[in-house]
Amino acid sequence: MQVHQPDLEQLAGTHYNLARAYWDHLGGNKAENIEQVINHAGKALEFYTYGSAPEDWAFLHSRLGAAYQERLQGNPVENLEQAVKHTELSLKVYERQTYPQYWAAAQFTLGETIQKSTRGDRAENIEKAISYYMHSLQVFTRQDFPRQWAVTQRSLAFAYEDRMRGERAENIGRAIEHYRQALEVYTRPAYPEQWADLQNCLARAFRKRSQDKRPEDLDLALQCCMAALEVHTRQAYPDKWAEHELLFGMLLMEHKHGDRAAYVGQAIQHFRAALEVITEADYPEIWPGIQAALAAAIREQEQGKTGAR
């Protein structure tokens, strides 16, 4: 049976709207919703072409790029390749001058995708990601697009933490600065969960920088860890709570100044707290490491008690 053009257009419009709707509601079953975005956007593109409907065509490719970048099913390497392909196609329409917001979003997606990629030279991929993020910030300013600006600041921080080129301490310092900029938008009253996540990121960054003979950064890391625990409680966020407890214990064991015995005693408490959630059955890959850290702390505590007699 032949399908008439008005019917085809109506069907394509339905797929278009469904792709947009599923993308806007990723909060449910994210994996399934992403599959729906890919399915409906692909079907809509059977009708919307670059020549007949360039704006709709570009929008669908941009959604496909973002969906493949976050896809949880399928081959991760192939998903990222598809993300790059579709995002670059959208840039045939989304130029900086005519569609600045969509152009910036595409730059951000390319940055996220290339940073995750395991293909090619890792160091070069990170440099490219940083460049794409900086491009997006030409449009996503603090004043005009605060949320997008903050998200990009956070991604830049991740990139600088992973950066292989340049001085390590300088890269970590830049990461810390970008995390702090993101916190200008992700405040505790407005975005408590994101605020706590960023506190955890800062704690880890300060810990890395402390390894470059900056012991004062351990105190800053401990402060950030304590702040994160104020939001990520055992009851509300057990997994994140356990993660913070573990990091807290590691930071205390690395602290070489002040009352060492007190630090070790507190570290033991935090390791034991983390193990309330991180069980051998649920986390077999990291449970042994925590047990080893706990055993080392207990051993040091016992040696300290023996030496004090």
Structure characterization notes:
- This protein is mainly α.
- The protein has helices at 5-24, 30-44, 54-70, 76-90, 100-116, 122-136, 146-162, 168-182, 192-210, 216-231, 238-254, 260-275, 287-308.
- Helix 1 (5-24) runs antiparallel to helix 2 (30-44) and helix 3 runs parallel beside helix 5.
- The longest helix has 22 residues, at 287-308.
- The mean pLDDT is 91.
Secondary structure elements and pairings:
Layout: H1 5-24, H2 30-44, H3 54-70, H4 76-90, H5 100-116, H6 122-136, H7 146-162, H8 168-182, H9 192-210, H10 216-231, H11 238-254, H12 260-275, H13 287-308
Radius of gyration: 24 Å
- β-strand percent reads under 5%
Which series of helices and strands comes N to C?
HHHHHHHHHHHHH
User: Could you estimate the helical fraction of the residues in percent?
Assistant: over 70%
Number of contiguous helices: 13
Shape: elongated
Secondary structure: number of strands: 0
Outline the biggest β-sheet: none
**Low-pLDDT residue intervals, each spanning 5 or more residues:** none
Roughly how many Å apart are the termini? 94 Å
Residue-averaged pLDDT? 91
Structural class: mainly alpha
Task: List key phrases describing it.
single chain, 309 residues, mainly alpha, 72% helix, 0% strand
How would you summarize what this structure contains?
By secondary structure, the protein is mainly alpha-helical.
